[in-house]
Amino acid sequence: MRRVLALLALGVSACHAAAPTAPASSPSSAVASASPTAPPTASPSPTPSPTLGATVADTVGGFTFNRPADWQRTTAVPTDPTKDQALFFLANFPLLPACAVPSPATPQPSASAGQECLAPFGQLPAGAAVVEIYDSLLAGPLPNGGEPISVAGLPSRMEVATPGRCGNQIADKVLIVPIPEPPTGQQYHLSAVACLREPNMDANERAVRAFIESLKRR
User: Does residue 45 register a pLDDT over 80?
Assistant: First the structure.
């Protein structure tokens, strides 16, 4: 999902319905250009845990937020600092250990520039929910289209693709939300990118939206 997952493109194959187009600097277009020619060789991921109701407070980088208690927050393995890359993930199933490291462990830079982590989930399992916070080196303007949403106290937009491209795979739904930069909120470097698969997609989408709405800068 980086120039993944970084976890992404809003574009889908010609056999799918047309989806909203993300801005040029968004992780969706980044992923499309960097998708590997072959899928990862990792074995399928374990069955995702169901999204219950309990949440826990969490902190990473410059943000605080609430996440489902049964979702794991992991830190992305650093890659080339001159390129766009993921910062951290939330997921209801284990991600590849070569790509995402649970706290409190400190991830070490990838010796392969992170090519194996273009899809840090291996194969996106049924019932999956995975969110990537993706950092673009170049600032981009907020999109004009999409659903109005507030992120970290600033107005933003949520773009939705049903289905949507998630790394080198197709997810049932992909959500992309720029995280506006203060003080004006007119540009962004960071985006929240979520990939969802049935079953339980509606409940997982509610959990993703609650996470995004809870984001606050420290």
Answer: no
d(CA 150, CA 134): 18
In tens, the pLDDT along 94-129 reads 999 888 998 777 777 766 555 668 788 888 999 999
Rounded to 10 degrees, what is the CA torsion of 153, 59, 123, 176? 10
Provide the 10 A C-beta neighbour count for residue 11. 19
How far apart, in whole angstroms, are the C-alpha atoms of residue 69 and residue 78? 26
97 near 17, Cβ under 8 Å?
Answer: no
Which helix (H) or strand (E) covers residue 129, if one does?
Answer: strand 129-141
- Determine the Cα–Cα distance for residues 166 and 196; give it in Å rounded to an integer: 9
- At 95, list the tokens: 């991600």
Q: Residue 191 pairs with which residues in a beta bridge? A: 134, 178
Rounded CA Rg of the chain: 15
The pTM of the full predicted model, rounded to 2 decimals, is 0.75
User: Are the C-beta atoms of 20 and 158 separated by less than 8 Å?
Assistant: no
Closest CA to 132 of 96, 84, 91: 91
Residue with token string 């509610």: 206
